[in-house]
Amino acid sequence: MPPPSRWSDIADDLRARIKAGEWQPGDQLPTSRQLMEHYEVSNPNLLMRAIAALRAEGLLIADPKAPRRGVRVRAQHFFQRELDAYRQEYREALAGRDHSFEKISHIETGVDVDVTYEVIDPPEDIAETLGTSQKVLHRTFTYLADGTPHQVSDSYMTAELAQRLGLGQPTDERPGRTTIAWLLDAGIQVTHTATTLRARIPNPEESARMATVPGVPVFVHKHTLYAGDLAVETGGGLVAADQIEYTMCADLTKEV
Question: Are 23 and 113 part of one and the same domain?
Answer without folding.
Answer: no
